[in-house]
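hey m, so remember when u said the tokens were messed up on ur end? i reran from scratch. heres the input so u can diff it against urs
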Amino acid sequence: MLKQHLTKIIIPIAGYGTRMFPASKVIPKALFPVLDPKDNLCKPILLIIIEHAVEALLSEQPDISMKDIQICIILQENQKPLIEEFFFAPCPFSMENKPQELKDSWNSIQNIAKQLRFIIQKEQLGFGHAVLCCEESFITEPNEAFLVLLGDHIYTSRTKSGTSCLQYMIRAFKKYQKGVVSLATISEKDTFANGVLKIGDILESENHGEAIYTSLLTTIEKPTSEQSERHQLYLTEKEMQQFNITKTIADKHELICYFGIDILTSDVFKNLKDNWKNGLLHNGEVNLRDAMRPIIESGNMIGVYVKDTSRHDTGMPFEYWQSLQHYYNGGA
């Protein structure tokens, strides 16, 4: 039985940021600025990611407090000083007579700082390896679940209920007591850059189909057309209707892919270690999705698809520029 509450957050940010060079030579890309429409303040990407996660955890688990939440940042040694300076250095000016939104933001930074810890990823061996670095020192119990977030993605929701994707995921975790994967749809031409999942039965939906909870059968990383056909990864007409997807003439097939937010359980660590030990790597890196596959195929993970939700990639120059605009406009 998993622990009832979800309180631990893992955010790997240790990549070199080569696609954002030369700016990333001086500033970790997790500290690149984004204008937050909530309060019209310019914030580092990392702060926005953490604030959204904390807000969802507290709103969906009213019996926990900020003091219960633990946040682990996986980073390189040379990234640590600037990250620490942002969260722990005193404010260089007095907050007296400053606008309330500035005071609130400063309080948020201070509260988050109290719950932070850092783990150094000494070798850049991939996202899965970054998660593995948390075993024993951060995820200490065999029945723990934890939230894993990408360090360069931010999310917006335009749902009628105002419920975010992560909030729905937390609800699914509490109800089903399993790992939870966020889902999105992609066209066949985009599978070269995405892990794809085969869905099973629809378990239930919330708010008139705004969120769909589904069983998962398997996952394949960046499948070819032949693999997609053989493993029946293409969505059927019925599934297209259930997910309210309109197929265009240009896109012959639609598939389900990862959305980038995961609630994982501690049994993923064994799979990560086994894959690393046995040399089951992708381009020399430990792949998190490969370690998730046995858990998915055993029926111990479910998927959550939320309509009217967008992700904004800040890890590449053009996408970063687009994301600044789309995020401020609520994902439009």
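this time it looks ok to me. Residues 159-307 form a domain with the Spore Coat Polysaccharide Biosynthesis Protein SpsA; Chain A fold (CATH 3.90.550.10). if urs says something different then somethings off w ur setup not the seq
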